[in-house]
Amino acid sequence: MPVYSLNINGKVQKVDVASDTPLLWVLRDNLRLLGTKFGCGVGSCGACTIHLNGNATRACLMTVSSIGTGKITTIEGLSAKGDHPLQLAWDEVDVPQCGYCQTGQIMTAAAFLKKNPKPTLEQVETAMNGNLCRCAAYHRIREAVLVASQKTK
Amino acid sequence: MEHTLHQERRDFLRKVSLSAGGMLLGFTLFEDLSAQTGKGHVIDGVHHDFNSYLSIAADGSITIASPNPELGQNIKTSFAMIVAEELDADWSRVTVVQAPLDTSKFDRQLTGGSGAVPHSWKRLRTAGATARQMLIAAAATTWNVPASACTAENGYVIHKASGKKSGYGDLVAIAAKLDVPTDVPLKNHKDFKLIGKPIRNVENKNIVVGKPMFGLDFYRDGMVYAVVQRPPAFGSKINTVNDKAARAVQGVVDVVRFGNNVAVIANSTWSAMKGRKALEITYSADKALESSSDHADIFSKLMDSANARMHRKDGDVNAAFKSASKVIKREYECPFVPHNPIEPMNFFADVHADKVELIGPTQTPGSARRAVSDLLKIPEKNITVDITRLGGGFGRRLKFDYVVEAAEISSIIKKPVKVIWTREDDMGGGSYRPAVRYRFEAALDANNNLTGYKLRGVGMNAGAPTRENNFPSGSIDNLLIESLDHNSPITTGAWRAPITNFLAYAEQAFLDEVAEAMGKDPVQMRLDLLQKARTNPAGPVRYDIDRMESGHQCLFFSCILCRPDL
Ligand code: FES
Ligand code: FES
Description:
The complex is a heterodimer.
Chain A: E1 3-8, E2 11-16, H1 23-30, E3 49-52, E4 55-58, E5 71-73, H2 75-78, H3 85-92, H4 102-115, H5 121-128, H6 138-151
Parallel strand pairs in A: 1-5
Antiparallel strand pairs in A: 1-2, 3-4, 3-5
Chain B: E1 13-17, E2 23-27, E3 41-43, E4 46-48, E5 52-56, E6 62-66, H1 75-87, E7 94-98, H2 116-143, E8 150-153, E9 156-159, E10 164-167, H3 168-175, H4 204-207, E11 224-229, E12 236-242, H5 244-248, E13 252-258, E14 261-266, H6 269-277, E15 280-285, H7 292-304, E16 309-314, H8 317-322, E17 326-334, E18 337-338, E19 346-351, E20 356-360, H9 365-376, E21 383-387, H10 401-413, E22 417-420, H11 423-429, E23 432-433, E24 436-444, E25 450-460, E26 478-486, H12 500-518, H13 522-535, H14 545-550
Helix pairs in contact in B: 1-2, 2-3, 9-10
Bound molecules: FE2/S2 (inorganic) cluster (2 copies).
């Protein structure tokens, strides 16, 4: 099997997997970065959201061979101490229910706030639209994104 | 669900031991409602009847064991709050640990039926209050002052007169030697400091950094991954299996057939998924398979059937409809609905000749173990179950088919294995809320009075798809509630608030339609019906009229808050 060198959370990691392996399963099975979740495997739920070169991307749809030198950030690399404004806001607003979707929600929100640091509620709704929460914590998710946007200078 | 507390045994809470310099109180969180085992249980080598414990360590940290699986209902937070409240603990020092399945300690270890907090409320409070009283007594003895002169606050016992103050951790060694008091007073609700306040989920900080805690996050070195091909339709059976291409997929280590299933075993999840896609399986069926259009036909037939089960009949419905000047008739239908918790089904199993280890997300660890024991003929005492956090449940994980599957596969391949369902597996082959169709009819007289009401519910594996004593039963003189059920090969399961969730919607939607036909405000129309149920009821009234009247802004007249009998 081919060996791929992946730039993940600022570190180069080598993995030896089939070329069509989705990044999701490389992260989980090979690298044990388990904050990136499997919800659907077909790009429909957002539980596997990571950043590729700063853009929110679905790890389940991206094959390992397509990444090249792209820079990947997972939830584990979003902040050193779990203190990204979104992570703090998520606790403050008490967003999680079962919690399974939440890392994906945070990764989508983080990429979005980078591009639009002071969004309106409507813009937040649109940006978060593709991330499903089966427990339906949507109100708090939106509120937390807005709270985080106020924290960010 | 029984919500009243059972007669407390006076000695339900006892000191178990002094463990590692701390204090450990055993108590009974759940009593087995179905069967009393009659045998003593063991905690720390001592026989007792307990099934939970509260421990206070010498460093002041407080731990309670929760037998209930956590799936987002926040039991880990609420149990801790209740204990901490009566204990006057420092909230930040309290944790709840997920107890593994242990029938020597826990009698009723499951999450389902919305019963945990109502059931455990008084027991948790009493446990906290008892420990608090013992800590106060320990301080009073040490300081040689009356216990009544001491108070407890935020993890400290305080003697105001002398200004003495001691942390709980410093007192446990003495407290643990005292007798456990009985008849400990509980706080007045108005003195609650934690309960009633918005307290955050104790797992937030772990969740937002993606700490592994769910079943799918469990990995063990040397384990393999299994993805299972189940029959594509309910009632179809395997004819032939060609696994040549599947075995050729890189990473696939085995393909095994068990019953009507074929499992592809691989050294990664992706290889197992790819391997399964490469399987060539042919199926046949003994009988014609049911399709959705068949279901529509079956429902229509049942709607006209003369063999309905009658659940409630008040007055003379036929006369009311015969003399009606207007009849409103509506149908509401809901198909089979999968639970779809966002974490797909999965379970880890490691089966040996005489012992089994099971780890993963389940609402019913005890039943899962029993089923695995039955299948493998390995005694339950040799089977351990560790409960991970559940990425949602909604009733799906009351079923343990995926646990048994993992155990069966591990027993065949003789390796530790994690079975992973895909989203499609969960949608297509799992467990559904029963499909239902409702037909409501209302008769209005010439003055627009509601004189007759009929509901016929038909379902697929729904049991009785109606609830005959829901509002508006009792508020209309002539009423008929009946149902029919079709026995379908499609597997169904409890989906949050079985039956009532969709029925409540249909009932209230229909009443809105009736109100419109009557030319009445929909809320006023309901209040008028409640008035009638109060003053001149037609047959028994099983809902709480006061409560429904006072909360008439609530949309769901059939929900559990207004229906203490549910
Ligand atoms: S797992 Fe990738 S979008 Fe659902
Ligand atoms: S918190 Fe459970 S799916 Fe979002």
